[in-house]
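=== RUN LOG ===
request id: a7f3
mode: sequence -> structure
chains: 1
length: 265
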Amino acid sequence: MRVTSYMDYTSPNTQFTFDLNGSTLFKKDECNYINVLGIKNLNTLENISLLDIFLSKANVVEPHYHQNAAELVYCISGSVVVSIINPFTNELLHFPLLPGQVANIPQGWWHYEVATADCTHLLAIFDAPTPEVILGSDILSKTPANVLAHTYCLNEALLKEALAGIQPGTLIGPPADCCKPSQAAAANMKGTQTNPVNMMPANVSPMNAMNAAPYMYPSAPQPFGYQPMAVHGYYAQPSVPMYRQQPYYQANPGAGDALKESGNE
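=== RESULT ===
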């Protein structure tokens, strides 16, 4: 809903400038934090607000949605992958951004951002004076485990154990006190090693990727054969097998040539 302004611009209380450095919404550490600007900070803003987001590599602005605002994510420095679920097609789409590039997230769409480089700086701009948010950590931590277990036919005890560590209001994950599995334990997990940025087993090839992780994050958006920002407008092409989608071409450039030669591309 658009807010009608009745601001008295002759008032001595009228504000035209503000320093975001003194308006921290959330801080994980010195490299991962979010500053906020809204109408409560700057009373002449009307229907606009923003988040100033700083991330180091592999840090995630947790899955969430804004029920009252669309969001435009602008990459200032570093690199990031913005991921959204299109509720009309039920597709999970990924948008890699470099400095100067943007991704638009419609109001109410589930999304998250993963930094793929240190010193990543993002500006998230909203078409509301105060953006509201529903966080994934709140949904998972506040929904009773017995309800989730019954609904999805899961083992309640194992589910409780898995969800016990989720901290409401995580905002930037993983939490600073995250307990990582040992290398020995990781090696025993089906013999795979997972890159925390790519989030995909390192020993998975493009041809068998459908049997492993459903997607991956590139360390840098360098398209092979596609120009998603200019042509397709999205990262994962719809109705295309996972091994033929752009992320796997990026990780394995030769795969595209092999597929084309075989006539499967």
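=== NOTES ===
Residues 198-265 form one domain.
Confidence is low (pLDDT under 50) at residues 181-265.
=== END ===
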